[in-house]
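Hey, quick one: can you model this chain's 3D structure?
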Amino acid sequence: SARMIWDKGIKEYVNAAIILRERGVKAKFILVGAIDYDYPRFVEEKFLKEWSQNGIVNWLGYCDNINEIYQKSSIICLPSFYSEGIPKSLIEAAACGKPIVTTDMPGCREIVKNNFNGILVKPKDEISLANALEVLINDFDLRFEFGTNGRRMAEEEYGADKINRMTLSVYTDSNPN
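Sure thing. Here's the predicted structure for all 177 residues.
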């Protein structure tokens, strides 16, 4: 889940999906997030719709319950090269017990320890992104191991109570009722 801006690695993600499709890897790729029109390098809607129509990635747009999507997903991917603090989306992904593929960037590498709870890839490198995704797509046991490690790490670093509250707050924050 990310704002639809190029700096979050959207192009690399889409290209990795294309590479994997060409390799015959069976997987569904989704993009979740609103277009951020205030950001100069936003991804235009025409691209998002085109990718969806071509069956490359399915753009779901803004989602007010990301947790539900995390639960249904096998792998969480954030190929960002945007200088950010620690991405909350990755903490949530780890808390949900999901393996993560993200970039070796400050913030991202604080949440993902390479080959422990996910795989770190070089920023702006669609080949290494595709390779990392392929490894996890093809290895259920590794996905399970990384997910379990991530959940434990999140609990240790952020506290089990806090993680449980955070996981719940994803539901409550996003639910206006």
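One thing worth noting: DSSP finds eight helices and five strands in the chain.
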